[in-house]
Write a structure and sequence with these properties.
By secondary structure, the chain is of the alpha/beta class. Helices cover about 30% and strands about 20% of the residues. The relative contact order is 0.16.
């Protein structure tokens, strides 16, 4: 077994997932942008780009990384509630396909910068549909109290001044209501709101040419092998039916659903200890390698890999990491074959928001996310037979 911890990616699962998405959308005017924030490993980006997907970026670094990995600039959409001037300049310089704008002031800044660069970019307005995603509050983005999207007041002001904004081309709308959504009824509600909002947009801004409905499709964290390929058919059918009256290209920004199930975090048991009421398994991976449980209270399936050693029955463990925080825990009361020092565990569904959210807290090995970030040397990319 190689040194732990490391991220293990099954590229066959990734290929199967990408092909399923393509098969579900080949007969429609649907365009898929992979959300780079889910996993920005260069090899994975190259595989996804080679399949012809576009990219959904939320930083200047992600734009540059996407282009470097082979995504066409014209297929890149740039989102984000707080774009810096430098990041906007990167988008304009690379002539990317679309900029999603989330505030009136941002639109004014882009208009001014575009003028100085003698270029007219296409932009889409991110509007908040006030639809509950029925998911964790920290990954819900479509309610009126969330920070995302133009406010009603800003949209009204934009309607008044947009004829004077001669250096931008407002062509459509962008929505994204949250992540890890498993109820198709949520997307049905989004379609209903879009159908209500489109006439208002066209009566004030102009004919819609671009509609981005975000992403958010959830995955099966509890039993990943039973849901290795997410419910793409039901997901796309929901929008195919819900938006059937609109004759407009529909864009999606899927991240988690594309990469989550192809990745696992492999980690070693450093120590097993007992208290009066608990068994603890202390791992060499922590919240620095997988932030989701500490950040959201997320749960991942945990498996023992060296099952031939599991001959002594099952016990219940709190699975914890080495970081100096009480929140550094992967699960409580997890039932596993009896663990011993040196056992290898696999934390499943870590293809999304594990490597890309990794930290250097506590002096952990290189993990950051700056504009020059290199792939972590501890990473392993594996294609199984």
């Amino acid at each position: 077994m190689e040194n732990t911890p490391f991220y293990f990616y099954d590229l066959n699962v990734l290929d199967d997932t990408l092909n399923t998405v393509l098969n579900c959308t080949e007969s429609d005017n649907f365009h898929i942008h992979y959300a780079i924030k889910a996993n920005n490993n260069k090899k994975i980006l190259e595989i996804i780009a080679a399949k012809g997907f576009g990219a959904d970026c939320v930083s200047g670094w992600e734009i540059e990384a996407s282009i470097s990995a082979g995504f066409k600039p014209s297929s890149i959409a740039f989102a984000g509630v707080g774009k810096t001037d430098d990041e906007i300049a990167i988008a304009l310089t690379n002539r990317i396909g679309m900029i999603h704008c989330e505030s009136l002031e941002e639109i004014l800044v882009i208009n001014e910068m575009a003028d100085s660069m003698n270029y007219i970019p296409k932009i889409a307005l991110r509007l908040n549909p006030n639809v509950s995603a029925l998911t964790h509050e920290k990954i819900s983005t479509g309610l009126s109290e969330n920070k995302f999207g133009l406010t009603v007041l800003e949209f009204a002001e934009l309607v008044t001044i947009h004829p004077s904004l001669r250096n931008i081309n407002i062509v459509g709308m962008h929505f994204h209501i949250g992540s890890q959504i498993i109820e198709m009824s949520v997307f049905e509600q989004l379609c209903e709101r879009i159908n209500e909002i489109v006439p208002q947009y066209e009566n004030t801004i102009g004919k819609i040419e671009y509609l981005n409905v975000g992403g958010g499709l959830g995955v099966n964290y509890d039993n990943p092998d039973q849901g290795i390929i997410p419910e793409f058919e039901a997901y796309f059918d929901t929008f195919r039916w819900g938006l059937r009256k609109l004759n407009v290209p529909v864009h999606f920004e899927l991240g988690r659903s594309i990469v989550a199930q192809c990745g696992s975090l492999h980690t070693k048991v450093l120590y097993v200890k007992k208290s009066e009421s608990k068994n603890f398994a202390v791992l060499d991976a922590g919240m620095t390698e997988l932030m989701r449980p500490a950040l959201y209270g997320a749960k991942h399936k945990i498996e023992k890999l060296n099952q031939e050693d599991g001959l002594f029955g099952e016990l219940t463990y709190d699975i914890v990491g080495p970081i100096c925080e009480s929140s550094d825990s992967f699960g409580s009361d997890v039932i596993l074959p009896e663990l011993r020092r040196g056992d290898i565990l696999s934390i499943r569904s870590c293809g999304a928001y594990a490597e890309s959210m990794s930290l250097r807290y506590n002096g952990r090995k290189e993990v950051g996310n700056n504009l020059k970030r290199q792939v972590n040397t501890s990473l392993r990319l594996v294609r199984t037979a």
